[in-house]
Amino acid sequence: MNHSGLHRSRWQIVLAVLGLGLAWSYWPTLMEMGERWAHDPQYSHGYFVPPFSAYLLWRKRSQLAELSFASSWWGVVLLVGSVACRLAGSYFFIPWLDPLSLLPALAGLVVLAGGTRALRLTWVPLAFLIFVLPLPYSVQTALAQPLQRMATVATTYLLETMGYPAVARGNVILLNDMKVGVVEACNGLSMLITFVALATAVAILSQRGWVERTAVLLSAIPIALIANVMRITVTTVLQERVGGEAARVFFHDFAGWLMMPIGLALLGLLLWTLRRLVETEPPLGPPPETPQPEEQEHKAVPQGEPGDAPGAGVEKLVGAASG
Fold this sequence. Notes:
- By secondary structure, the protein is mainly alpha-helical.
- 68% of the residues lie in helices and 4% in strands.
- The protein has two domains: 3-134, no CATH class; 138-277, no CATH class.
- A three-stranded antiparallel β-sheet has the order 1-2-3, covered by helices on one side.
- A hairpin with a 2-residue loop joins strand 2 (172-175) and strand 3.
- The longest helix is centred in the first third of the chain and has 37 residues, at 3-39.
- The N and C termini lie far apart (88 Å).
- Mean pLDDT is 80; it is low at 295-301 and 313-318.
């Protein structure tokens, strides 16, 4: 074995040890995230994120296979930054920094294995993993109350439009003799996170331009709000018409699954509309060659002057040739 092959084998062993150490170090964090996906509806989309990131890597398999071993010390910088992020989270008691530090750690391993070129090929799958991370508590608190109030007002307006005598009192909807409380679990934050992740995935897979992709990303917020208002409205109507038990079953068992295809349908409608409003960019490269008409084998016969006898043009042509 030559010197370069021995050096590469040693680096592969070092990377394998670092990967195993990383998995062991983050195992409690990964188990905690799995528990949150299983029991917190706000993060139930977490099961979808790692397989999608793996699929994005699989799409790059041919380019990744062509990479040569080109380790970079920038990977060490990313790993040190990851360790510093974890230590800061423990010291200042910021739990959100612990799972966040996993992303620069994975990026560091990629750079150590294939250099910055490997990171350029894999940064999108790595960045998509941010959707498995929990939101900071301060962000959840700041978003919960405005979303809750918005859902209450919008649902009340929709019920009034449908002919129901609904009145909003705080975060409670009064409908005849019934009170429907829009609690914190109904604020729509879970749908917002889910639809942002879904819209990001659609934008990544889309072959359209940046205008259409940006529109898809921005549409996640109104789609999530519309879906949440529809869920609360249907639940309120069921509680008024059928009974509280039917409304509870719909809200807890079917509403979440029903809103997902509705969101996908709205995204599909948006893409269909954009496809007709936004012109497709012309393909790069020279324009296709157009077939040229065949050259005439014979010259055109000149016409005679006005007033000449018929055939004068032919006589002039013959005379010019003989001269």
